[in-house]
Amino acid sequence: xxxxxxxxxxxxxxxxxxxxxxxxxxxxxxxxxxxxxxxxxxxxxxxxxxxxxxxxxxxxxxxxxxxxxxxxxxxxxxxxxxxxxxxxxxxxxxxxxxxxxxxxxxxxxxxxxxxxxxxxxxxxxxxxxxxxxxxxxxxxxxxxxxxxxxxxxxxxxxxxxxxxxxxxxxxxxxxxxxxxxxxxxxxxxxxxxxxxxxxxxxxxxxxxxxxxxxxxxxxxxxxxxxxxxxxxxxxxxxxxxxxxxxxxxxxxxxxxxxxxxxxxxxxxxxxxxxxxxxxxxxxxxxxxxxxxxxxxxxxxxxxxxxxxxxxxxxxxxxxxxxxxxxxxxxxxxxxxxxxxxxxxxxxxxxxxxxxxxxxxxxxxxxxxxxxxxxxxxxxxxxxxxxxxxxxxxxxxxxxxxxxxxxxxxxxxxxxxxxxxxxxxxxxxxxxxxxxxxxxxxxxxxxxxxxxxxxxxxxxxxxxxxxxxxxxxxxxx
Length: 476
Ligand code: SF4
Fold this sequence. Notes:
disordered N terminus, binds iron/sulfur cluster, 21% strand, 12 helices, single chain
């Protein structure tokens, strides 16, 4: 069977895992009218999709000023490293990435979440040119100007209206807010990124429209807490398509659902008002997919974690959602071994997991993060116990996942094609987000292209992926 390497279980959600460093996409070819060589910036982007969106914004701005993006360290006049500082391991990876850029290029600007620890960065890498924090787009661009002044040329300053993205052409992350109003005990994001700041609804919709007009087939809605969207704005209205649109979760999702692209919701909490989007999923206006980081099921542990919606009766809610939209896929992440998690708490989590039948699940062993309130909690769980619980958790979820995917056999489903090579095509169903969920393989299929939305009949399944045969090519 044609398949690519998969980790033993679907990766934990990208919000809590640093991505592998990646160089930005090479600059598109264009007619050169200027004799002077444009300055080149290298880009290394680490961390979650939110950090990726920050990188896209910085690159868009730099390209609009005539900078080119170097595909490697050697071709760059200066390198920007967008760091992640969510976990200690992510900080270590960020410091390593800075060290690599210093060794390979020597002219390095650091930005992103770890930028708040300037002293630590400068102590490890004293030659770094500048350090800026998360969302400091202006400061990063200023630092690039200082390092390599822009070349003013009206012919090379043009960028596509939708901006430049690091994702494939057919899907894009759509960030609807910055920061977070919650204060989960294990998390330092609010101290790194500040309180919730939502974008006006019209600004989100204009960006979404531009993306769809540029060929994007799937919009992945992200933020730290998507269901809290607009609370800080008191649901203020802004004008979109000549009519007022409220900065309210449901209103925004409804508007996004009218654009004709797949709309996938990430980082949603099970608040009662989330119930309102389930009928939109049942009607096919947005994807039947919810990414809800539950983190645990024991009320005692959830309280200690200070999780939002800790008091909600989630199993009941999930049951109701599935009555309205039986095809709903739920992805989530969990933490095992949180301070004072007893065997009883853990057993409750396993029972909950068996009952909830979540489609995609990632699991972390609890790890202390410098500056997190949870560090002061008593009852540290020994590493050996964490490890053992993690394995039990994964074994349980593997069985659930295998059963759920096997139920898809014989169904004809939509598949959005991501990649095609000489062995066939690989895509995703409405129940799979890019990078973190499973895939649908169309072995030997060469009649499709990346970005095609096709119909395919599921013929095989394992605990992660589906295999299908093409029924109809939806390509225009
Ligand atoms: S919801 Fe909790 S875990 Fe998520 S960013 Fe906010 S504080 Fe951190």
